[in-house]
Amino acid sequence: MQNLYETVKKAQMVVQVEAVRVQKELAATEIEGYCEGELIKVTLSGNQQPINVEITEAAMELGAEKVSELVNEAYKDAHQRSVQAMKERMADLAQSIGMPAGLGDGLK
Protein backbone atom coordinates (compact mmCIF):
# COMPACT_ATOMS: atom_id res chain seq x y z
CA MET A 1 0.00 0.00 0.00
CA GLN A 2 2.87 2.39 0.77
CA ASN A 3 4.28 1.70 -2.69
CA LEU A 4 0.98 2.73 -4.32
CA TYR A 5 0.92 5.92 -2.24
CA GLU A 6 4.45 6.82 -3.35
CA THR A 7 3.58 6.15 -6.98
CA VAL A 8 0.54 8.41 -6.77
CA LYS A 9 2.58 11.17 -5.09
CA LYS A 10 5.23 10.97 -7.83
CA ALA A 11 2.53 11.13 -10.51
CA GLN A 12 1.02 14.22 -8.86
CA MET A 13 4.42 15.92 -8.82
CA VAL A 14 4.97 15.16 -12.50
CA VAL A 15 1.54 16.56 -13.38
CA GLN A 16 2.19 19.74 -11.38
CA VAL A 17 5.61 20.31 -12.95
CA GLU A 18 4.27 19.69 -16.45
CA ALA A 19 1.24 21.91 -15.87
CA VAL A 20 3.50 24.77 -14.80
CA ARG A 21 5.65 24.23 -17.89
CA VAL A 22 2.59 24.33 -20.16
CA GLN A 23 1.31 27.50 -18.47
CA LYS A 24 4.69 29.19 -19.01
CA GLU A 25 4.68 28.14 -22.66
CA LEU A 26 1.18 29.51 -23.10
CA ALA A 27 2.07 32.79 -21.42
CA ALA A 28 4.98 33.21 -23.84
CA THR A 29 2.85 32.34 -26.89
CA GLU A 30 1.32 35.14 -28.95
CA ILE A 31 -1.89 34.40 -30.83
CA GLU A 32 -3.38 36.77 -33.37
CA GLY A 33 -7.01 37.29 -34.24
CA TYR A 34 -8.50 39.37 -37.03
CA CYS A 35 -11.76 40.93 -38.00
CA GLU A 36 -13.22 40.37 -41.44
CA GLY A 37 -10.94 41.99 -44.00
CA GLU A 38 -8.07 42.00 -41.50
CA LEU A 39 -8.50 45.70 -40.83
CA ILE A 40 -7.81 45.09 -37.13
CA LYS A 41 -5.47 42.62 -35.46
CA VAL A 42 -5.68 41.68 -31.78
CA THR A 43 -2.83 39.79 -30.15
CA LEU A 44 -3.40 37.72 -27.00
CA SER A 45 -1.10 35.47 -25.03
CA GLY A 46 -1.83 31.77 -24.97
CA ASN A 47 -3.55 32.27 -21.62
CA GLN A 48 -5.84 34.98 -23.02
CA GLN A 49 -4.01 38.04 -21.74
CA PRO A 50 -4.24 41.05 -24.11
CA ILE A 51 -0.92 42.02 -25.67
CA ASN A 52 -1.64 44.36 -28.57
CA VAL A 53 -4.30 45.84 -30.84
CA GLU A 54 -3.42 47.12 -34.32
CA ILE A 55 -5.92 49.27 -36.20
CA THR A 56 -5.32 50.12 -39.85
CA GLU A 57 -5.96 53.57 -41.32
CA ALA A 58 -8.71 52.00 -43.44
CA ALA A 59 -10.47 50.87 -40.28
CA MET A 60 -10.16 54.31 -38.70
CA GLU A 61 -11.96 55.84 -41.69
CA LEU A 62 -15.02 53.71 -40.89
CA GLY A 63 -15.79 55.67 -37.71
CA ALA A 64 -15.67 54.93 -34.01
CA GLU A 65 -18.73 52.67 -33.82
CA LYS A 66 -17.56 50.42 -36.67
CA VAL A 67 -14.01 50.31 -35.26
CA SER A 68 -15.45 49.20 -31.94
CA GLU A 69 -17.37 46.39 -33.65
CA LEU A 70 -14.28 45.30 -35.59
CA VAL A 71 -12.07 45.32 -32.49
CA ASN A 72 -14.64 43.14 -30.73
CA GLU A 73 -14.71 40.76 -33.71
CA ALA A 74 -10.91 40.53 -33.81
CA TYR A 75 -10.74 40.01 -30.04
CA LYS A 76 -13.26 37.16 -30.23
CA ASP A 77 -11.23 35.54 -33.03
CA ALA A 78 -7.99 35.83 -31.03
CA HIS A 79 -9.69 34.50 -27.90
CA GLN A 80 -11.13 31.51 -29.75
CA ARG A 81 -7.71 30.70 -31.23
CA SER A 82 -6.07 31.11 -27.82
CA VAL A 83 -8.57 28.80 -26.11
CA GLN A 84 -8.03 26.22 -28.85
CA ALA A 85 -4.25 26.44 -28.39
CA MET A 86 -4.68 25.96 -24.64
CA LYS A 87 -6.93 22.93 -25.16
CA GLU A 88 -4.39 21.40 -27.53
CA ARG A 89 -1.52 21.95 -25.09
CA MET A 90 -3.50 20.50 -22.21
CA ALA A 91 -4.50 17.49 -24.34
CA ASP A 92 -0.82 16.97 -25.17
CA LEU A 93 -0.01 17.17 -21.46
CA ALA A 94 -2.73 14.66 -20.59
CA GLN A 95 -1.49 12.29 -23.26
CA SER A 96 2.12 12.64 -22.13
CA ILE A 97 1.19 11.52 -18.61
CA GLY A 98 -0.81 8.59 -19.90
CA MET A 99 -4.38 9.83 -19.62
CA PRO A 100 -6.74 8.39 -22.23
CA ALA A 101 -7.29 10.56 -25.30
CA GLY A 102 -10.57 12.49 -25.26
CA LEU A 103 -11.05 12.25 -21.50
CA GLY A 104 -11.67 16.00 -21.17
CA ASP A 105 -13.76 16.36 -24.35
CA GLY A 106 -16.90 16.90 -22.30
CA LEU A 107 -15.45 20.20 -21.08
CA LYS A 108 -15.55 21.84 -24.53
Automatic annotation (TrEMBL):
It holds the Pfam family YbaB_DNA_bd. InterPro entries: YbaB-like_sf, YbaB/EbfC. Keywords: Chloroplast, DNA-binding, Plastid, Transit peptide. GO terms for molecular function: DNA binding. The keyword Transit peptide applies. Its main location: plastid. The keyword DNA-binding applies. GO terms for cellular component: chloroplast. It comes from the Eukaryota. It is found in: Plastid, Chloroplast. Belongs to the YbaB/EbfC family. This is Nucleoid-associated protein.
